[in-house]
Design goal:
The complex is a heterodimer of chains A (about 230) and B (about 250). Chain A has about 230 residues and is of the alpha+beta class. Chain A is built from 10 helices and 4 strands, in the order βαβαββαααααααα. With about 250 residues, chain B is of the alpha+beta class. In chain B, β1, α1 and β2 form a beta-alpha-beta unit. The chains are: A alpha+beta (about 230), B alpha+beta (about 250).
Chain lengths: ~230, ~250
């Protein structure tokens, strides 16, 4: 099964990480994979464009089925391999709804993070404004407080949709890991800090941890003061 | 079932429209709903904030369950009401993969449309740049061309029937949607998510001549019962929209 799967990925890309966590959770280790370099613009290579006309990573194939969007790949894998590995979509309507809700809020969360840490990557020099970056930081703080609240409400040791690990954690944990990699203060965001500590050693997450983060354990401090 | 559902919505909002199409497709008409005004800031009212701390629409409840993200609500409804109404997630692995992929790409299309249509709303005056808006328009054109490619098979078949009644012949021409006209096989959640964006694009002046496949997709789906039933009321009231996308 895993042998007719191929993943083109980049180290530290949260969307790539989501798919890799899902593959591990569904016991699909053994999939073919190739690490590409964003810095060398390998995500715009013909090899990627042949699978993904958007020239983005992840690019994922299962046989002839191409699923490049990370959420789409997660939904597809859970649906196709429901009965193997861990169940990633809860049956109970309440938990299921909460899982879907947090997953899609996770897209806003990821965007607001990128709007701060990648501000200069996205915005050409002559279009940058301190006021814009300030606003992006404020939006991220508002977002962080929302997620602190969500986790606090569920209680210590909870996953995003309740008692069990689900696709909400698969898709959102990488964003949380990124926050701490970029210097977020666990003192100021203790509930997120606890969630990060809860999941960082989960086998699927440990197995797919960005290799360059292992090589260089010191991250950045962009988010130190927010 | 539908009676324990309530939807706070705003007219013309693609996310709200997606949820309403899904409710129709799953035969959940009869849900309670309240139309709110974005112009009057009603999406930031206490009524909304109690359900959705983000102060956004749609705000959807099913009993005590809350779903404010449109795609989340659609996925939940399809999963909870799988056996009633129209099946919105295909079974075949190939179609399912394509459906999830196009569904999520639909959110890209939404972003790129919004970055042009709502540029002035999102960006304070002193931070606006012609170069930024130009770049957003170019990104939108690239995106629209992708979708023209995805819809390359869209077309309709025309069937003509004659029916004799007393001394009169009636010619009934039925326009049937041909296979390949939807985003992933049969009508699915991919269409539920993407169609409102398509409608929006044409509402804001997108040229049907330059984007013929999207135009055909739009005209094929606009009279689908679930879509007709949930069409934004002010679009019926004033058929003429805006022209921001006219030159793309």
């Amino acid at each position: 099964m895993a042998q007719n799967m191929t993943l083109l990925w980049g180290s530290g890309s949260a969307p790539c990480w989501r798919v890799m966590i899902a593959l591990e959770e569904k016991n699909l280790q053994g999939y073919n994979h190739k690490l590409l370099s964003f810095d060398k613009m390998e995500h715009k290579s013909q090899e990627v464009l042949d699978i993904n006309p958007r020239g983005q990573l992840p690019s994922f194939k299962h046989g002839d089925n191409i699923v490049n969007d990370s959420y789409a790949a997660c939904f597809y894998l859970e649906s196709q391999f429901k009965s193997q590995g861990n169940r990633l979509i809860p049956d109970s309507p309440a938990e299921q709804a909460l899982m879907y809700q947090r997953m899609f809020e996770g897209l806003a969360f990821y965007e607001k993070l990128n709007a701060v840490i990648y501000y200069k990557w996205f915005v050409p020099e002559d279009e940058r404004h301190d006021s814009a970056l300030k606003r992006n930081k404020e939006a991220l703080v508002t977002e962080l407080k929302l997620w602190e609240g969500y986790l606090k409400k569920l209680g210590s040791g909870s996953y995003l949709a309740g008692k069990t690990f689900s696709l909400a954690d698969v898709t959102v944990f990488p964003t949380v890991a990124y926050l701490f990699r970029f210097g977020l203060s666990a003192e100021r965001y203790p509930v997120l800090g606890e969630y990060y500590a809860l999941l960082k050693d989960r086998p699927s997450i440990k197995a797919s941890w960005p290799p360059h983060w292992l090589e260089n354990t010191k991250g950045q401090d962009t988010l130190k003061d927010i | 079932m539908a009676k324990s559902m309530s939807l706070l919505w705003g007219a013309g909002s693609p996310p709200c429209w997606r949820v309403m199409i899904t409710l129709e497709e799953k035969k959940l008409q009869g849900y309670r709903h309240k139309l709110l005004s974005f112009e009057k800031g009603e999406h930031k009212s206490q009524e909304v904030l109690e359900i959705n701390p983000r102060g956004q629409l749609p705000a959807f409840k099913h009993g005590d369950i809350i779903l404010n993200e449109s795609v989340a609500a659609c996925l939940y409804l399809e999963n909870q009401f799988k056996s009633q109404g129209v099946k919105l997630i295909p079974d075949s692995p190939a179609e399912q993969a394509l459906m999830y992929q196009r569904m999520m790409e639909g959110l890209c299309l939404t972003d790129k449309l919004n970055s042009v249509i709502y540029y002035d709303l999102f960006v304070p005056e002193e931070e606006r740049h012609e170069s930024a808006l130009k770049r957003n328009k170019e990104a939108l054109v690239t995106e629209l061309k992708l979708w023209e490619g995805y819809l390359h098979k869209v077309e309709h078949e025309q069937h003509t029937h004659t029916h004799a009644h007393q001394c009169f012949f009636y010619l009934i021409s039925a326009i049937k949607v041909a296979a390949g006209s939807y985003l992933a096989g049969a009508f699915s959640l991919a269409d539920v998510i993407v169609f409102p964006n398509t409608a929006y694009a044409f509402r804001f002046g997108l040229s049907a001549g330059r984007y013929p496949k999207l135009a055909k997709y739009y005209s094929l789906l606009k009279d689908r019962p679930s879509i007709k039933a949930s069409r934004p009321p002010q679009w019926l009231a004033s058929p003429q929209g805006h022209e921001i996308l006219r030159d793309l």
